[in-house]
Design a protein that fits this description.
This protein has twelve helices and ten strands. The protein has 336 residues and is an alpha/beta fold. Helix 11 links the parallel strand 7 and strand 8. The chain is globular.
């Protein structure tokens, strides 16, 4: 199955989309913060980012869902900075150290070269991790790489605090959406991720992703994902995420067939590990909380997707992950 951006490249539409996205940087409205800074003149936006993309690392990654990691890894590119400030971020050294990350600025051409290198190394896809605040730069690099022969699916791995207008401009460029749906309550989003109206914006964003992709995951003969929407739900201690409400929203507003990736990897880090204001996040989830989450999936009849192994989940999702032992299983393996 040919990636969508190649069709847009051949029609000339990809160049137009890139230019329209770049225009949004002049008074930045790339994410729902809409800070209005002129990033084309390298003004620093609310995400602490300017005109050029920032990449902290890029590597074949073997800890993603099996349909993404396959046997040769997902070609993940980890952007620096973030438009959220999650107090429990497992990659806070990348997402919340903007003075250090500024040293990792690079050209669009270098970003394209990273994509082509991951392609040559045999990766199954190109996965942009935390791409929201660098969408115009990402699409410019996709255009450059596509002109040089890139042919892998593009994965948009996002916190879902995305602009619907921007996502519409990504229609046909992105092959796989991999959003987190973090909270069912925007008050929790403000307290723990420092953004307003998270739930409203994230649900609207995920609805747009579902409009583009539909319900079905398109896999090849090797079980590798070529197109679709896979929603990640991280189970947080003390039900801070509002898991049941989010699951029911997905079931009722999107489709019971929506593919879910239920994640047990939470462990206290960043401010959640040390700041008493976030004491409800100061421990790993219990087995009881995990199996309650599985029971909710069973009750709703949602059996498309993946679940992490409870015992091995907490260590895998880091940029330096090398272990080829897969921490995910198919949801149906848990349902008898």
């Amino acid at each position: 199955m040919e990636p969508g951006y190649l069709r847009l490249l051949n029609s000339g539409e990809l160049q137009d989309r890139v230019e329209r996205l770049e225009a949004l940087l002049s008074a930045c409205t790339i994410c729902p913060k809409e800070c209005g800074n002129n990033r084309l003149k390298d003004e620093i936006a609310a995400c602490y980012s300017g005109r050029l993309p920032i990449v902290s690392s890029y590597t074949p990654h073997f800890g993603e869902e099996p349909c993404l990691s396959g046997t040769r890894g997902a070609g993940n590119i980890f952007f620096g900075n973030c438009n959220l400030r999650c107090v429990y971020c497992q990659n806070y050294q990348i997402s919340q150290t903007w003075k250090e990350q500024r040293k990792n600025e690079l050209s669009h051409e270098r970003l394209a070269d990273m994509m082509l290198e991951l392609d040559r190394r045999g990766c199954h896809n190109i996965g942009f991790v935390s791409p929201t605040h660098f969408v115009p730069q990402m699409t410019r690099a996709i255009l450059i790489a596509a002109e040089k022969g890139l042919h892998l699916p593009i994965v948009y791995n996002t916190n879902a605090y995305d602009s619907v207008e921007v996502l519409r401009l990504l229609d046909g460029i992105i092959d796989i959406y991999l959003p987190d749906l973090k909270y069912a309550d925007s008050d929790a989003g403000f307290q723990y991720s420092k953004v307003r109206n998270y739930t409203l914006y994230a649900r609207n964003a995920v609805k747009e992703m579902q409009r583009q992709m539909g319900d079905e995951l398109i896999l090849d003969n090797d079980g590798l994902m070529k197109r679709g929407l896979l929603i990640r739900l991280l189970v947080l201690p003390n039900d801070i995420a509002g898991l049941e409400e989010n699951l029911r929203w997905i079931h009722d507003e999107l489709s019971p067939k929506t593919a879910i990736s239920l994640m047990a990897q939470y462990y206290p880090t960043n401010k959640a590990a040390t700041d008493e204001r976030y004491i409800l996040l100061s421990r790993r989830i219990s087995e009881g909380e995990w199996f309650r989450a599985i029971s909710l999936m069973n009750e709703l009849g949602m059996d498309d997707g993946f679940m992490q192994e409870y015992e091995s989940a907490s260590y895998y999702y880091r940029p330096d992950f090398k272990d080829k032992e897969k921490p995910f299983r198919d949801i149906r393996d848990f349902q008898d």
